[in-house]
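We were asked to recover a plausible sequence for a given structure. The inputs and outputs are reproduced exactly as logged, with field labels preserved.

PROBLEM: sequence recovery
POSITIONS: 471
GIVEN STRUCTURE:
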């Protein structure tokens, strides 16, 4: 490995500056010690960080070896110990995934504390082709075949700090040679040969087999990842524009988009949008499988879907209102979209005055003359003849089985649940939709129906006007 060839990679591919602090993850293996030594030799302001996973008997010895190596170069050194097995048990994750999560959490937290420009890790060219093959065998699309970029982000761990991989174009044999030339004595993790792990099987079994077909297969796979990466970047920009075309907007645990505009997109962009939205809502999932995307796509392809589709564990897809569809988590709150109140809440209000219904909605109450009524206003405004008996007025949630009586050409009674269904109110918010009552009588279901109670007549002298509006 030639340090002169690494310098433009660090500057242009990784976008690094020598003067700004750079956190380097160091396990003690040949890749990470090579990276640490190369950055030191090129004059970068680095901080070595080691995470002891406590998974093997020699873990403490490796931590000591890394510390001594860093101190020998007079590089600042920070380390921690993490309980991978305990984390895996609590969160029902594999040991490998748990170790990764805890490692990156500490690396990015340390980088934040050190005001670092980025986190550097020692993924190299062999890691890249192993990653590409893993994704290929799992049925990945282009985003998986591009592998890992020189510079990228891991939003689960940080939305502001980048992760850089300066050795992505360097092969393992070059790294071993570099360590030998610079008298670096790395630690070797015997678990890297354990074929119970998927990546290890690819490294020790599949890659050697591919070389029997073409001894340049690894380099061709690396080139594939590089070519796909450029095309994926282009499609990513097209997907961003497509998101604007479908008027995608997000709230607390949900994403809304317009179905007619979605249908006008190319199939590739539709799938990319769905995958991106699912990833945004389920950040703890590293890879959104093709099956989840296809479930969502199949549901949206139905004519006028009225049901709800579970796309992932805790993530749902449904009709929202009219032409709008929603992808949402189980813990989503829709107070920004609707004037919802808390279950069981009894909300009284001042007249005249403005009262907050929830953080995003409020209603105004005032007295007006009958001549000031504007009957062309929408269903978010109600006019009531309550005389002076306002003390019993309040907003509550409703029971779907109770009935509201209203006037059409003749008097009708309808269950509140049926009214919400008939008006196609999004199912997840029906239980917290507000109802205006006077005692036990329903006067108004805002946005939906006015009852036949407290109607304004020719004898009415003063009218109570209630107006709901988004803040």
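RECOVERED SEQUENCE:
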């Amino acid at each position: 490995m030639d340090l002169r060839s690494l310098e433009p990679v660090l500057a242009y591919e990784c976008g690094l500056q020598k003067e700004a602090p750079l956190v380097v993850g160091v396990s003690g293996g040949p890749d990470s010690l090579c990276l640490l030594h190369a950055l030191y030799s090129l004059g970068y302001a680095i901080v070595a960080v080691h995470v002891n996973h406590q998974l093997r008997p020699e873990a403490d010895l490796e931590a000591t070896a890394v510390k001594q190596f860093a101190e020998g170069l007079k590089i600042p050194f920070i380390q921690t110990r993490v309980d991978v097995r305990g984390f895996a048990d609590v969160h029902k994750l594999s040991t490998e995934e748990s170790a990764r999560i805890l490692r990156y959490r500490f690396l990015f937290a340390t980088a934040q504390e050190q005001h670092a420009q980025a986190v550097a890790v020692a993924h190299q060219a062999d890691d890249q082709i192993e990653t590409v093959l893993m994704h290929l065998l799992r049925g990945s699309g282009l985003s998986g075949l591009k592998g890992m970029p020189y510079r990228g982000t891991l939003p689960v761990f940080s939305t502001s700090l980048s992760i850089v991989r300066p050795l992505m174009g360097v092969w393992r044999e070059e790294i071993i040679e570099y360590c030998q030339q610079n008298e670096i004595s790395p630690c070797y993790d015997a678990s890297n040969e354990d074929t119970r792990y998927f990546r290890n099987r690819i490294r020790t079994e599949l890659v050697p087999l591919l070389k029997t077909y073409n001894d340049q297969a690894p380099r061709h796979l690396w080139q594939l990842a590089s070519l796909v990466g450029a095309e994926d970047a282009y499609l990513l920009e097209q997907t961003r524009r497509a998101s604007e075309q479908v008027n995608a907007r997000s709230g607390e645990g949900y994403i809304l988009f317009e179905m007619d505009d979605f249908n006008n997109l190319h199939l590739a962009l539709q799938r990319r949008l769905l995958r991106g939205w699912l990833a945004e809502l389920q950040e703890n999932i590293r890879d959104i499988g093709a099956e989840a995307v296809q479930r969502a796509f199949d549901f949206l392809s139905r004519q006028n879907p009225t049901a709800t589709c579970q796309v992932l564990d805790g993530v749902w897809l449904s009709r929202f209102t009219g032409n709008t569809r929603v992808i949402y988590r189980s813990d989503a709150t829709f107070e920004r979209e609707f004037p919802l109140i808390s279950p069981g809440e009894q909300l009284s209000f001042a007249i005249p005055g403005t009262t907050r219904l929830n953080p995003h909605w409020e209603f105004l109450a005032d007295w007006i003359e009958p001549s000031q009524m504007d009957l062309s206003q929408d269903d978010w405004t109600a006019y009531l003849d309550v005389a002076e008996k306002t003390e019993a007025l309040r907003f509550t949630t409703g029971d779907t089985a109770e009935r509201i009586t209203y006037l059409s050409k003749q008097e009708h009674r309808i269950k509140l649940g049926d009214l919400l269904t008939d008006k196609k109110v999004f199912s997840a918010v029906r239980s917290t939709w507000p109802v205006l009552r006077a005692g036990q009588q329903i006067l108004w279901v805002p946005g939906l129906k006015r009852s036949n109670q407290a109607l304004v007549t020719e004898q009415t002298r003063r009218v109570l006007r209630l107006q709901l509006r988004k803040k």
